Amino acid sequence: MADPDPQQNAASGSASSATQTSFFKLMVLPLKWLKRADRIEDLRRYRKLWWYTVTLTVFVAYLPLFVMTGVNYYMYRKNVVAEMQYDISRSLTNVSRSLQFVIEERLSALDLIIRENTNEELSDHEHLSITLHNLKESFGGFVDLGLIDQNGSQVAYVGPYELEGVDYQDQRSFQQAVIRGSFVTEVFMGHRNVPHFAITVKSPSATRNFHVLRATIDVEMMNRMVFVQSLDRADDTFVINLEGVLQTPSQHHGDLLQLASIEVPRYSPNAEVIEYNGSEVDVLGYSYIEDTPFILMMTKRRGEMFEQWILDQTELIVFLILSEILILMVVLWSSTRMVRQIRAGDQRRTKMLMNVEYTNKMATIGRLAASVAHEINNPLAIINEQAGLLSDYLHSADDFPYRDKSKKALESIIRSVERGGGVTHRLLAFTRKMDSRYEPIDICHLLSEVASFLEKEASHRNIRVYKDFTENVTHIESDRGQLQQVFLNVLNNAFAAMENGGKVRIGVEQHDTNSIYVSIQDSGQGISEENLEHIFEPFFSTKGDFGTGLGLSITYGIVQKLGGQIGVHSELGVGTIFSFVFPTTAPKKRSEV
Known about the structure:
This protein is an alpha+beta fold. The protein folds into two domains: 39-305, PAS domain (Beta-Lactamase, 2-Layer Sandwich); 436-592, Histidine kinase-like ATPase, C-terminal domain (Heat Shock Protein 90, 2-Layer Sandwich). 54% of the residues lie in helices and 18% in strands. A five-stranded antiparallel sheet has the order 2-1-5-4-3, sandwiched between helices. The chain has a five-stranded mixed sheet with strand order 11-13-14-16-15. Strands 6-9-8-7 form a four-stranded antiparallel sheet. The longest helix has 111 residues, at 6-116. The two termini are 68 Å apart.
């Protein structure tokens, strides 16, 4: 049969490679798109979880704050208004009673005078002057005193004005006194042209020859009584008549004898305090003075009344805002941390499942490789037997013309069969069940066997493997298969650390009489200090998607199980050294000793 054409093989290989590359691109690109879509969907899911957590937590945290703030606002304002209404009601009652008592006291004094004195006595100027003097000394507030006959003419008068003979017949004060027996007038200017109010009392005589005693009261007396209650700039206390005309000056509602800017409240026999929405008044208190035309008024201005309350509420609102900001910061931080931890946990779980799946796949491949190696052993054994038979024939046939050439070909076949058998036997030995079976082992020979597994890969990748074995190294009692796995894992990592060629040095030396020292050094890229602390942890890998993160973890466990020690030293850009110390006796025997 003719040898195949090398150019044809190259062309077919190139075409096959191009086909594989195209197929790879067709498979990888959709996978990238799917991974990107999965990442976007994961981010959306975690973002949605973050928003849900933040919203729910903020709502639960803010709701009690808002409720308590609203309740505090309502109750505090209600208490302020209630306290203010109580203060106004108390002050209003005291002032109105005092004012009514003062007027009634003066009415009673005039009634007593007119009852105890005759018309002739009261008509006497000197006697009337003494009476006015006594009234001023005893009660105060009296300006003048006059006696009016039944025709309304003032027949006697004492005071600062010239009013004797003045006709009061058409005056309301005279008419009401005749009808009612006594009367208190509103504040007016009158003949004196100064603000005052008058008190008139009719004599008890039922005849037509009655007379009326009329006294003028200084309005300043009433002003002084209400002025004390108006010292606070938020308060305003004044007196109006039934038509709303100011009988005393007001701080905010007008001057004396002007129409007040506040409406006349409805009549009530008791002092009343109400919320008032007109002008700049929040609370209005009033009290009708019985048997007089006077209404005592007391108001609180808007803003000034709640000045302290607004200040307290401002502090409360500032505290609420600061609390909300602090709560929001804590919620954002805790929610972000929690979602990140959930995401990291999901990623670790996904990676672990992928690693488990990958490990199962590798185990399946290992079982398949062991089965293939076992199946290859049968034809290799047949080839070896047939080659031996042909060799016997050649030795018995001395006249065979191609004896020497055929003998060399048979020897080559037998060596190849032995080599293939050695490979399959090593593979089967490596894939056996990992039950610990201790036996004497030449560690140098075992390392040479493991290195032979990687000869082809080393030659393809231009990696040189150097063996530095010390002579007369003691055999150790250990498990062959597990030692093979340990060294194969470390050598695979050493090869993976070198991209474009490199060197691997395998060293063995006697550590002491009871242990030996093994080192595997590569000239790869090295391991950073932060990764060096985690290389023996399960699922930790620096190979990205190509590593399971289980090799060195399993290696560490096997070494510990065999009673040995493992260490690592690495420098970035220089390389890595894995060192092992194995005891010369099995762990069971050492524990028995």
